[in-house]
Design brief:
4 helices, about 85% helix, elongated
Length: about 90
């Protein structure tokens, strides 16, 4: 079987669970908040003072930590799904 056909038949990712969906949406919201915070840092500091920069830094740190956790869990779910698919193909 040609490689491209074999790749088309191979599942690429696990079905998304409710927990992973929630984590993905949280990740997306954190990314948007990070972008807004970085773009609007000057007006935020002018409006709220120095604490605004700490809030933006906290959002950036939370985004980084959440991203690492999400990637770890998503990768683990994908690997488990693909291992199960491979083992079912071997038994067939």
């Amino acid at each position: 079987m040609p490689l491209w056909l074999d790749l088309l038949r191979t599942p690429m990712a696990a079905p998304e669970t409710d927990d992973l969906r929630t984590m993905r949406r949280t990740f997306q919201v954190l990314c948007v908040l990070s972008g807004i915070g970085v773009i609007a840092i000057s007006p935020l500091v002018a409006l709220f003072g120095r604490p605004a920069s700490f809030v933006v830094a906290a959002i950036l740190a939370t985004t980084a930590l959440h991203t690492a956790l999400y990637v770890f869990r998503k990768n683990r779910a994908d690997n488990a799904f693909l291992d199960a698919a491979r083992s079912s193909e071997e038994h067939a």
